Amino acid sequence: MAKPTVLITGISGFIARHCAVEMLNAGYGVRGTLRSVQRSAEVSASLSRRADVSRLSFAQADLDSDDGWDAAVAGCAHVLHVASPFPAKQPRDEQELIRPAVQGTLRVLRAATGAGVERLVQTSSMVAVMYGHPRERTAPFTEADWTRIDTPGVTAYAKSKTLAERAAREFVAGEGARLHYASVNPGLVLGPALDRDIGTSAEIVQMMLRGKYPGAPRMAIPCIDVRDVARMHRLALEVDAPSGGRYLGCAECLWMIDIARAIRASLGEAARKVPSRVLPDWAVRLAGIFDPTARLAVPELGKELRVDTALTRRTLGITFIPAPEAAAAMAKSLLDLKLV
């Protein structure tokens, strides 16, 4: 028996395309939202190389508008709400990120509950979990932790993901009580790009391959393969667990130099420009005066991170692809796609 149709919001994105492949290959129908349906042929062609797209369709909808969402969700049994702004640099006005993230999430939730959708999985982030906490913290982060958005230095992006997830949970606790809800909270998403529209998460690896910086900042980050992120969405949709699940996506926390070393070890000469040493903290701070990307790393210098994913692994029954393997797979795909 064919499985029902799942709406995937923002299907042109890096994570969302992998979610579409995962769901199509698992036997679901997929309807994807696009801000412009003119991109439907491009997305369909990309997905067709990895899945049967005979049950793939598209709808036009934008997080900033009410238009199109009721039609998009009509006839869908489930929703994967993946769409959310993800900038390469922080905006001058944080509401440029917060408003579409929060209001867009509520638009999707209202449309889903109005259409009688059974289950909705929201793509949140580890940035909704681990920022704004004391630097000296040594305890692992768990699904019970939340980013403290009022702490100085918390970015607009971290605020947008935190507030969007909180808004969703508050909605489901009230008028959306019949909807089964869960969130997937991935760290830095690595793994293979499906096409040349790589999104912001691949830019760290792209910069390494291009040799943009002479070394790697002394910064740790939780990492996960995009194929595992997609699998987590499907499992969160299917698992026999109470509504409200919060599933942390982290294979392990790697220092940036460990990501670089994994790429160099896998790709050899093709990765000759990838950093092989750690930058002194003072050099990163100096670069941050002029470079917005380097500036984002400054508050994280030297912070050791740990994430406890025991509950996620136990509930979803998932074993994560090793993070160094995910980093190497992303780098190889960028070279294959001639994006370096």
Radius of gyration computed on alpha carbons: 19 Å
From the N-terminal CA to the C-terminal CA, the straight-line distance is 44 Å
Structural class estimated from helices and strands: alpha/beta
Helix content: 25-40%
Low-confidence stretches are none
**What percent of residues are in strands?**
5-15%
Mean pLDDT: 93
| Series of secondary-structure elements, N-terminal to C-terminal | EHEHEHEHEHEEHEHEEHHHHH
Strand order of the largest sheet: 3-2-1-4-5-6-9
Globally, the shape reads globular
Please summarize the sheet with the most strands: 7 strands, parallel
**Separate helix tally:** 12
Number of strands: 10
Short description:
This protein is of the alpha/beta class. The protein has helices at residues 14-25, 40-48, 69-73, 95-114, 156-173, 203-210, 226-238, 256-267, 281-290, 292-297, 310-316, 323-336; strands at 5-8, 29-34, 56-60, 78-81, 119-123, 180-186, 188-190, 220-225, 245-249, 252-255. β5 (119-123), α5 (156-173) and β6 (180-186) form a beta-alpha-beta unit.
